[in-house]
Batch of 4 targets.
Target 1
Amino acid sequence: MQNTQKTMNQLYESLGKLFYALAISDGNVHEKEWDRLKQLVKEDWLYVDDFTDRYGTDAANQIEIVFDWLLENEKSSEACFEDFKEFYTEHPHAFSDTIKALVKKTAHAIANSYAGKNKSELVLLAKIDLLLK
């Protein structure tokens, strides 16, 4: 199945939710986690594909936009992970091997960015690994 512009925008939105779920899993998003995510979006995610959002900017920017919105609106880690899981289940074709590897890389980098991985982050990382097999 071919990925559409809409599906890929939703993919990046769901990734913003996933990475927020990981960062907030210990009850607090640390500045280093947020900074690390922004760095990885610029270094890796902007080069994954050529999809753009409705404003003509790279669709991968949706990761940061959604993460930032969630920071302001304080959704729970569990709810955000479930949103991601639901999108993944409905659109597995949107997750190439490259995207899956980059999701795992980004998740681990966020978890390592502030005082190493804690228990809640390890649990969520395991769920991500199991889901993306």
Note: The two ends are 19 Å apart (CA to CA).
Target 2
Amino acid sequence: MPRPPSHRRYTPKRPWAPMTDAEWAAILPHLRTVVMGQGRPLADARHRIDGMFRIAASGQPWHTLPPEYGKPDTVSRHFRRLARMGFWMRLVGACADRAAPAPLRAIEFFVVRAARRAMRVLGMDAAVMAERVGILSAMPVLPVHLCRPHWFAQAEGAIAQILRAHRDAPLSLPFKDLREWLRILRHYAGRP
């Protein structure tokens, strides 16, 4: 299991503003790798992504999207499609790269908010990935609330081993050790 990066950080907030040409140029290569050759090309992909960033940054529901960005249902469906294709998580990974271009870093807050919204579609695997790359703002919850399946299984295995070793003499169970392992198990199960 890879170790968490040492450059874990939270992204500072930024008020929404339309993307500049440099910011769009920083996003475009990631968008091309995701949607290359699939379906009809969008008339104005930049404007659509801008609308997605606007909704993600504000935290408002899709129906509040201004009409100049397109129909809210269509933009929402396109957002979910991009989420399933891995676009938002790919952008989070690109923002986490120390060599990320300055224009991409400038819109990191929008990318992070879009990724958090995409986790409704992607589930906890995306949250674990966001923690792994070190951008904690992209996670839907604080890291302490996440379940750590690998470590949870390790603790569960240790408890099972103790119970198997004392199967014939249950009164000789090391209750102090067992309590400690249960505490560790609860920790790696995540907080509700």
Note: Residues 50 and 139 are 21 Å apart (CA to CA).
Target 3
Amino acid sequence: MKVLVIQQKMIGDVLTTSVLFKALRERYPNAQLDYLINSHTFPVVKNNPFIDNFIFFTPEAEKSKIALWSLAKSVKKEKYDVVMDVYSKLSSNLITALSGAKTKISYYKPYTSFLYHHNIKRSNKTDQACGLAIVNRLQLLEPLDIYIQSARPKIYLTTEELETSKQFLISNGINLDKPLIMISVLGSGPNKTYPFEYMAQVIDQIVATTDGQVLFNYIPKQEADAQAIFKLCKPETQNHIYLNLFGKSLREFLALTAHCHALIGNEGGAINMAKALNIKTFTIFSPWIDKDTWNIFEEKCVNESVHLKDYKPELYKEKREKDMKPQATELYQVFNPNLFTEKLQVFLKKLIAHG
């Protein structure tokens, strides 16, 4: 039996969907389980023992219809028995349609349902701690007679990666016996990034409460924005920030995060990765992102999150969060950190109490 799971685009999506593989392996121990993902997301699923092969959706396939067609034909040659299209967009629709698989599974959409043998309707609410993002993915397993209520993503770092990152931190003046906190200072775009002046206030509170050491999560091309947030912090806070100490690759970031006591900041891939490393998180959601879907494994003082809707529900009325996307900038200004100062303070005190 050969199974292909398709999940393109974002790191958080690829990591979350990876929970399917353990369940598939337990149900079909001798199956070939392959994963089609964007090439830049590979580091979060590298070394996953339940995945046999990776097929990469390259930047060329995104830009070129010829390259996409070539990818679809290469998938067809593999003669998969099952194709599970978690992405469910035009490119993955094409790949699945041409695959020749006897069983094609995806989410229900009225305009693509004819392409699939099983069209699963997403749930809108759940009482499961794993959150809707995982609950809805697990439902895709049901046509294969796999019924699971919860599963947790996991990132697999090597002993060498962990030891190298540990020595890197120590050699750069980090005391691993003191609180070490990674800050997700920037989101994947402006409409998913907490305003710089507000983020600086959050970092000021973190340092004042924990007397901890602070790392910023950013990539070199974001250095100017990271510097801008740093400069908005109080001078006494700046003394605790190791601005130039960051992972130069995604795997390096993961290995550094594995030694942190918590990751705090903008919702996105970094938060999901920290959770998959069993690192505590405090997430600041963008006003237009659906918290119910992505606040996976919410637990007081372990994985907490805040959303403007929690404090100003009247702004949303009967609107869905994604309907508010065009107003993200204005809504962010309303999302003053004073709204959640107390909640963050409880989280931080618990963090330093437990070490």
Note: The chain has 16 helices and twelve strands.
Target 4
Amino acid sequence: MRAAQHTHSGAHEWLDKIDRDYGMQFWILQLFGWTGVAVFTFLSLTLYYNTIYWQHIVHTILQSIIGLAVTLPLRWIFKALWQKNVALRIFVTAMAVVAGATVWTLLRMIAFMWLDHKENLLSTEFGGWFYPSFFIFSCWAALYYSIKLYQERQAQLVFSLRLDADRREEHLKRLEAETTAKEAQLKMLRYQLNPHFLFNTLNAISALVHLKENSKAREMLVRLSEFLRFSLANDPKLQTSLEQELHALTLYLQIEQARFADRLSVRVEVTPEARRSAVPSLLLQPLIENAVKYGIANKEDGGEIKIQGFVAKGVLTIVVADDGPGFSSVEQTTSGRGVGLRNTRERLHLLYGEESKLDMRNREAGGAQVKLRIPHVLFSEC
């Protein structure tokens, strides 16, 4: 709302400036036009008839000044008529021109009689003075409307261009702000994820050290360092191929398998086309972590995690399932199991909006299943 108000405010400021400029142009044209009338009158009457007297010269200047003054009310009338219908505008304009020409004729004839000491000109020569006055005022009205129409179209064009420029500027600022906010959210989700995973892994290493299984603890530390190196090398707002994502999962699962030994098995069924798909980096790690934590860790005899991936109708579908106890009724109606699924859902929404979908349900054969769908795009290294 504020951006829209700012945009319209900026455009209206430009329109006000244009109005001021056009007001200045009106006065320049007025002075130039009535000066031209004085010069033309001097050349065509005073010089032509060889009546170069100071009275005639003063009258020539004075009648232009009077004409300029008389046309000012016409400007106010014509401005008021500008938005009216054409018939009313023509009628009132004609009446205003006749009235203006009549007033100008009377005033300049009175001035001439006063300067030249003439009498009874109004009754004998009014018609001869009125016709050129009517012609001049008609031309003035025609020029006013022509220039007014041109100025209005120019003002509309400038207003439209300025409004579009302001809108584009506001749009770019909004996109920049949204991009910054989105990157900050993605980084926040990444920072939430790493401590969560580290906490579980370091607890497992601590337990192995406590049990004096030092070789397993060292093995887990090596795998943890490899996984973290891979994690830190991948920007969460960038994409990777599902093939590389599965490689990262292998590093993670090797850490978990060191904890669970033969209690954890993994089955991967991903089509070649799906493996070449572009996905957000480390997208599946929290899903696998939840499957291990809630599906495998609570079973004495362990269990299996199944990863499926396929492409159909331009959509990449990835399924992570386990054969554990499944989701509780509360988990199925809320955001899911802890930070992992919540972060995954938010990342998908930030990156794909309504084009992404994440579903949670219990499997008929037992266990939990998380299915996510995103637009299928082939990954490119460039």
Note: DSSP finds ten helices and seven strands in the chain.
